[in-house]
Amino acid sequence: MEVKQIKLDDIIAAHHRIKSYIRHTTLEHNPKLSYLYDSKIFLKLENHQVTGSFKARGSFNKLLTLDQSDQKRGVIAPSAGNHGIGLAYAAGKLSIPAYVYLPKDADESKVKTLKMYGASISFFDSIENARLTALRDAKENGYTFLSAYNNPAMVTAGGTIGLEILEDLSDVDVVISCLGGGGLTAGICIALKTLKPNIQIWGVQTEKSPTFAVWHKTGKPVPVNLEPSIAEGLSGPIEPETITFPIIHKYLDKVITVSEEEIIHAMREMLDDQYIIEPSGAAGIASLNKVSHDIKGLKTAILVTGRNVSWSRFSSLISS
Question: What are the residue ranges spanned by the domains of the chain?
C-alpha cells in the first residue's frame, strides 16, 4: 500500500467509528519528568485505555467494518499479548468469535486476561510460528486475519491518538512513540504531520530489536539481527513488505534505541508516580536521557502504551 492511500480523512473516520467504544485517554503533565529534563513533558496515558493498552483501538476499528458473514466466521491474530487482548475484548463486545495465537512464554497476566475475555487461545514456540500458523488457519477456516500493524485499520486507529494529542495540546512540539511493528507510529505520523507539518515525531525501539532503526537509516528493509527483549511488544521480526515502513520512513524524524536497563529504570521511575507500566509501554520514557538536550524547553508528549504485566514479572524486573 502506498503512503497516499491512508489519509487524514481515514483517521478522522476511524475516530468517529470507535470513539464510543474506547476512552479519550488523558494527556497528563508530569512535573517530575519536566523538572528532570528541563522540558514540559506530558504523558499520553494509553495504559489507562480499555484493556490496559492502545491496542483496542485498532481491533474495534477493524471489527466494526466487517460484514455479517465475516463476523460470524470470526477473527484470528498472533500476538505477544496486548494485540490479542484488544482483539478479544472488542470481539466480545461485538459477539464475534476470536482466536489468539501466543508464544509459549507470553506474560501470565496477559494469558489470564485473554481467558477472561473469552478468546480461544493456542500456544506456539515463537511469535513467528504463531503468525505463520494463524495465517494458515485463517485461510483454511475463513477467519479474518488481523495483523497488529500491517493493516490499514491498525494504522488509522493509531492516528486517532494523534488527533487526541492535538486536541488536548495544540502547541505540542515533539511526540515520542514506542515503535514495534509501526501501526501506532505510522498512524500518528500521518495525523500529526498532515495537521502540523513542523512537529517532531520520534520512534523508540529496543537495542535488541532495532528493525526500524536500521531500515530508517538504510532507507529500505534489510536483514536485522534480533535478540529477545523484555519489551516483547516492541520485539520480533517485521514483514519487509509491511505498509508501515514507507509511512515511517517518509514522516518519522528519528528512531532512538534504548537498552533493557534503561527500560527497567523508566519502570522504576514511574512506579514512584503510582504508575504500573509494562516494559514496552515504558520505552518512550526510557529514551529521555538520550534526547534531553533536544527537548529542552519544548512541549513534549510521550506515549505510555500499556500496563499489562504480571506483578511477579514487574517486581522481578524492577528489583533486578
Answer: 3-53+151-318, 55-145
